[in-house]
Amino acid sequence: MDSSPGPHVNSVDGGVYGRLVQARDIHSLTINAGERPAPPPGADVVLDPPRPATAVRGREGLVGELLAQMRAGAAVPHVLTGPGGFGKTTVAAELAGRARAEGRTVFWVRPGSVAASMIEVAVELGGSRREAEEVRTARHLAMRWVWRHLDDAPRPWLLVIDNADRPEELDPENRPGDQLGWMRASPGGFVLVTTRVDDPAQWAPARIHRVEALEAGAAAAALADHSALAGTAGTEELAERLGRVPLALSLAGRILATHRVLFPDARALLARLEEGVDRLDELAAPFVTGPDVDRRLLSGVWDLSLRSVAEREPYARPLLQVLAVLGSNAVPVPLRRLPPAELASGPLEGLDDVGLARAVNALIVHGLVALGEHGGEAALRMHPLVAETVRAGIGDSAVTDIVSGLLQWQSDSDFTLEASAYAALAGVLARVHHARHPTVVQASVGRFRVAMLLGDRLEAERSLGRLVETAEAALGGTHPETLRARHAWADSLRALDRWGEAQEIYRSVHSDRASRLGPDHPDTLSSLHQVALIAGLRGDLKAAEQGFQTVLAAYEGREEEPTALHALQNLAYIRMLRGDNDGAEAGFLRVREAWSRALGEDHPNTGQADYFLARNAAERGDHARAAAMFDEVARTRAAAMGEENTLVVQARERAERARRAVKGSDARGRGDEGGPLT
To answer: CA dist 291 to 171, 307, 430, Å?
Structure first.
């Protein structure tokens, strides 16, 4: 402004934006507006969908359903959920191809650039670049501007928001399902979201579709597509070994297509995978490149989910590792097998009920475990390939120590789980330490012992015999774990009625334990108990009674310890054989009450006491009561061991014999069956 006297002439040069205020007298005003700078180009985002390299197998029903919903004009967004690697993106890409063929505009939004991509979508629909730059930094304004263009689009579209594993990227202030952010239903087109977050509370009222592993036929066909080896030997077996997981099938197919010399057919690759599923990543890694490698290898795709979970729930990773061992081979893990008091050590130190619930829920929501029902109780289940991949990442004994404790706590409660878990534990320990490490011997003893209880007695005896040889060579004949293996081997020989061999081993183990551990050590007393048991089985009831009394006396004041209870039960059995039914019943009831308090009504040890109470009822001549009790024993044993187990068959035969006795057609004498199998 010119403040000199006289007429005032003011001039303003340069670019002027907003208001221009002129003070005092205005005689003339000239504004020379400079040219406004052009807005910068939009973000460098890719809106084109990926194109499946092969036919999309096993998803025809799901793709057809999505296609029908898209054509009908869905009132809500649709969401594909499931673990990483299960093919959500492939389903969405197939739908995108169908939509484009029908004349729809397709927009594909990738994680990490949702806002920038959505703004570019609006620009492609006719929004001006200038307006795009003006709203880019104002999130709410940008959302309204983008959706206005999507709603008013000149032709129908498909919008896919892929891998939305962080719902906050869709709306940091609200649930995505509130449809106030980047995910909304629109009259202009169809919205499809893919995510690992299987949480209806996040997405409602959007419609959720869960993507599972492929069916067997589709999995084999997918593997053949990727390998270009249709009909090759072992395709079905390899597809099953890979859990019918699309990502694993894709990697295996590429390996077969690339390494024809190493792997002329699927069986050759299957043999290599016996070393571990991590070999698949090792072989595939050279041709898996790019910025999203984490989503293209097995070791990365599930760890990506786990990293996301662990940011919020630090207990999630070690808990998943525990579940991967405890629930290998898709064996369900009852929630009762995961008490915080037994879990809270090492990486789970400080875990309580609330922390456990939060960590379990986070793993469920991200598709790493599934919650269901097994045997009438809540249980967690992991896909076997996910579990195997997670186990391959366990690098120290912190997690295996927790699993060992869980298996020893309430042991013999879930035989199928324990057999599988001990086998998985031995494999992890062999990798973390070495194949002859004492902890590997201990886990292997548990594995073969449970196999014996499940009825595979002959194979258990052979395996335990070989294990004893291995332990003696690696650890020495009197190492505690070698002695544990020898004791278990004698158990297997006893189960096969090879009593003389079993007795010899029990005696030598008892002698070695007494020398090394002391006469009153629990392991020493366990061996002494078995020496007495063999004496009873061979008809020397006096020697057996003396041995059981010695064991019981050593536990004075601690009669509810397991070995003491077994001794008390066997003393009651001897009373029954001698005709003292009142004394026998009192002993069996005392044992039953102790097992029930410690282990629960359905534990096999409680059922074993019930079995002998039923035997005692039959010995008294109360056959109707005995039949009902044997039936109940058979039911609880079958739940734990399976219908074909020898002990289940034994209880059912006893029930039938008691029913015949009620009718007067079977009156066999006392003592027609061997001693208790404890």
So the answer is: 25, 17, 34
Task: Give the integer Cα–Cα distance in Å for 146 and 135.
Answer: 10
| CA 509, chain centre distance (Å) | 39
- CB contact at 8 A, 92 and 192: yes
Compute the distance between CA of residue 573 and CA of residue 567 in angstroms, rounded to an integer. Answer: 10
Partner residues linked to 191 by β-bridges: 159
pLDDT for res 41: 54
Angle between helix 384-392 and helix 298-312 axes, rounded to 10 deg? 80
The string of DSSP codes covering 318-331 is HHHHHHHHHTGGG-
Pairwise CA distance, residues 128 & 144, whole Å = 15
List the beta bridge partners of residue 194: 80
Number of Cβ within 10 Å of residue 415's Cβ equals: 20
Q: Enumerate the H helices of 538-603 as residue ranges.
A: 541-554, 562-577, 581-599
pTM: predicted TM-score of the whole model, two decimal places: 0.83
Side-chain half-sphere exposure of 487, counting CA atoms within 13 A: 25
Distance spanning both ends of the chain, measured CA to CA: 107
Tens digits of residue pLDDT in 270-317: 999 998 888 898 898 888 877 777 677 888 888 888 888 888 899 999
Residue in the block written with tokens 């005995």: 626
CA distances from 85 to 192, 316, 440, 458 (A): 18, 20, 32, 41
Phi, psi of 369 (to 5 degrees): -135, 160
